[in-house]
Amino acid sequence: MSEQLVLPKMKRRKPNPPTGDDLKRAGIERALLNERARWRRRALQVVINTATLNMRFTADDIQAAAARAGLGPPHHPNVWGGVIRTALLAGIMTKTGRYVKGKRAAQHGRMIAEYRRVEAD
Hints:
By secondary structure, this protein is α+β, with helices and mostly antiparallel strands. It is built from four helices and three strands, in the order ααβααββ.
């Protein structure tokens, strides 16, 4: 006698709604992709130079170096987050785990991440 295996009916799972972090990542990515390619390349080069010249640095240091290099501001401030995320994912830099007080007045003294360069093997 052959028994047939009967599987229970599976309920279709609804996709999980996006989290706040998902929405943040998507917004930063969208802002970065809407920036001019030339600006993105120059900004990433500023990050590489900043990481090469400094053991520890912040986004404020990167933005100050960009201004000194003659790189104008991006079309939206969130673009900086995309540039930094790109550098983190590329292994150019990593977070130190420390947070320091931001230097720009617009930050109202908030704490910002400190980064360090990643040493080449």
